Prior knowledge:
This protein is α/β, with parallel strands linked by helices. The chain has one domain. This is DUF488 domain-containing protein.
Amino acid sequence: MSIQIKRVYEPPGKSDGKRILVDRIWPRGLTKEQASIFIWMKEIAPSHELRKWFAHKPENYETFKQNYLQELQHAEARKLLDQIKEWSETDAVTLVYGAKDEKMNQAVILKEVIEGM
Length: 117
């Protein structure tokens, strides 16, 4: 299994494989060509309410993580997680996100969940 995470604003690399955007909102200032996205899975991103509440404040991260893990228990999210895992078994997969914080974001959580499946 090969899953990486990367900011969508970083240039795409040959080792990225399938680049999956895991944000609910398209990243500002990027065209589809620049982002080089294989698929945009906005349905697997945190809900608008949770995203707004989190506001990328470090003190909110642990609660954000627990609430996001609950959101990922829904059937639709499980199907998407299964799909990403399946792709990662035969190809490199890179979960791309727009947040500035490289350690506290939804892509980090998704990678942990998928690798633990």
